[in-house]
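Per your request, structure below.
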């Protein structure tokens, strides 16, 4: 009688274990009528310091800033580099994202637009940027489990 070959050394036995259930998040305690919005702005990088100060003055303390590239009506231009001319189609911009309660959206957008606009008066220049508002379905603060406007 021949002995049964042993399992190869690289194969470990599979043991099924139950994963622990995730704890329920604590109740948020916020009014169901208060919604949360994401305010996103694409601005000139030179305006970033003024935008940060204006948002802070408007009561926004948390924000995400990302360096992005893109173009709009500003279009491209040509530059000389080491004697060669080349086209620059994309411009470096700063993307600013803030999550705020619905009640603060108008004040935040107004502060952002005023700080990002170049020049004097009510009219800026091409390339000053764009601001848009998006509805946020759910937001949870990871540290505490707070949800909705309480997590902002």
């Amino acid at each position: 009688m021949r002995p049964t070959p042993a399992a190869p050394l690289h194969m470990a036995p599979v043991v099924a274990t139950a994963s622990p259930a995730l704890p329920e998040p604590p109740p948020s305690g916020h009014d169901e009528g208060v919604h949360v919005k994401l305010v996103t702005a694409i601005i000139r990088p030179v305006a970033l310091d003024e935008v940060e100060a204006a948002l802070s003055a408007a009561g926004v303390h948390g924000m995400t800033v990302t360096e992005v590239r893109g173009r709009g009506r500003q279009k491209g231009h040509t530059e000389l580099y080491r004697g060669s001319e080349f086209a620059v189609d994309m411009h470096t911009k700063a993307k600013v994202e803030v999550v705020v309660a619905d009640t603060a959206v108008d004040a935040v957008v107004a502060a952002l637009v005023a700080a990002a606009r170049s020049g004097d008066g009510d009219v800026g220049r091409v390339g000053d940027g764009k601001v848009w508002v998006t509805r946020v379905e759910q937001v949870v603060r990871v540290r505490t489990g707070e949800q909705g406007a309480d997590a902002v």
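The two ends are 72 Å apart (CA to CA).

Regards,
D.
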